[in-house]
Amino acid sequence: MRESKKWNWFFFTLSLFFTWILTFSWGYSQTYVSGKVITADKMVVASGAVALEKGELHNNAFRAGGKINPDGTFKIPLPSGGPWGLHVYSEKYLYFPLQIQIAEASDNEIPVILPVDGNTDDDPRISNIRFSKMSDQTFRITLQVDDANDNLGPQMLAIDTKRFKSYRLRPKAGDLQDKKNAFPTGEYVSPLIPVALDGEDLRDWLFAVADHQCSNGAIYNGQGQSAFKPPIPHTEKLICAVPGIWKSNFGKVYKFSQTAPGTLNGEQFEGNLIIDKMEQKATKIFLDYRYKEEKGKAELQLLCQENNVILKGTFSLPERSGEWIFTKLKNAKVAPMGKDLFAANCSVCHYSDRKDYKVGPGLLELFKNPKLPYSELPPSEKVLRAQIINGSENMPPFKHLKTEQVSAIIDYLKTL
Questions:
Q1: Using an 8 Å Cβ cutoff, are 266 and 278 in contact?
Q2: φ and ψ of 46, to 5 deg
Q3: Domains in the chain, ordered, with CATH?
Q4: What span, in angstroms and rounded, lies between the C-alpha atoms of 96 and 114?
């Protein structure tokens, strides 16, 4: 009888171990890039493609990719962090390239603002998409690319939105050594793709091409059908506050974040301006910045009317000065509440509304008990913070959580 109980306990422990492996090794270590695609004319893109190069922007080492959802969002898992080149394509808008730095084991949100394509007559065009089975486990793609102004770039892309992969197609006659040259019109061929073609849903594949003037034209799926869906109005109610995503009158996109009362952090995406200091006093914002190593200053006024939020003022550099206007496009991302963080990170093992065991102990009235489960230490923020971050004998570490996220979880636990 004792031997039977011993083996039952062994298999129960083993099953918990594999549950932990399947749940935590994937769910809590995955790296993502995500965002919402907004247009310069304040619309939300409802269709399109995203492709990513591993390493520096424009090195053409395309590895990952995905689609833009009908609500304008995308979320793509990446195999690693570090530098990546992000490319976003949508019909009727100019394509968006951006050098990004990806943090491991987290969701990296990137703001994407697409300029309106004022002339679609010169857009490159895709036709005659063909999938050729090469073996039971491989296939190859060919397609025709044409361009009215003969200014094609190296981006002829096939994007597997099911597996989040992207592949660059090359001219059938051979690749160009200098990728800054104009690529030829004609037939393009993919590398050998390690996927079984039999049973593949060709609607999961998207195709995009771009020229050297950032025109990308129509995007098609593997059945040769246009993936275009009309953009939708951007209905987010803009908050009369500085934190958020902004576009300047010089066509640059910025992210402003609150770091402390009266202190802000500013970041320019894809540009030569670095904000060293940003302060707010009532509705006045003061900036110290560097532009191409020249030091400058700016004084801006926060102005709000209905859903139109702007920063307006002047900038000065050693050799010039002028008007600087920012238009707010998106509010700052709201940090997840403690309840949501608990659901995403803790609920797989712990109940929040009862005391009995799930995988670990239930946490109802945790702070009302004289001792914590297992450690038998008095419940305190310090003890719980250490256990959440470092884990314990029966609990994995949650080092991917930021300090404020751990604080939010602890605040939630106090309410149980």
A1: yes
A2: -110, 5
A3: 31-232 (2.60.40.1120), 244-331 (2.40.128.30), 338-415 (1.10.760.10)
A4: 6
Transcribe 271-305 into DSSP letters. SSEEEEEEEEETTEEEEEEEETTEEEEEEEEEEEE
Prediction pTM value? 0.69
Phi, psi of 361 (to 5 degrees): -70, 150
The DSSP bridge partners found for residue 331 are 244
Contact 140, 146 (CB under 8 A): no
Q: How far apart are the C-alpha atoms of 232 and 241, rounded to whole Å?
A: 24
Residue 49 contacts residue 65 (beta carbons within 8 Å): yes
Cα 262 to Cα 279: distance, rounded to the nearest angstrom: 6
Whether the Cβ atoms of residue 86 and residue 64 lie closer than 8 Å to each other: no
Query: Which amino acid does the sequence have at 251?
Result: G
Q: What is the phi-psi region of residue 244: left when phi exceeds 0, alpha when psi lies from -120 to 50, beta otherwise? A: left
Give 83-119 pLDDT, tens digit per residue: 999 999 999 999 989 999 999 888 898 889 898 898 8
Residue carrying structure tokens 């080092």: 399
Per-residue model confidence as pLDDT tens digits over 311-321: 999 999 999 99
Name the pairing type of β-strands 82-89 and 73-78: unpaired
Please give the structure tokens belonging to residue 2. Answer: 């004792």
The Cα 48–Cα 37 span in angstroms is 10
* Rounded CA Rg of the chain: 26
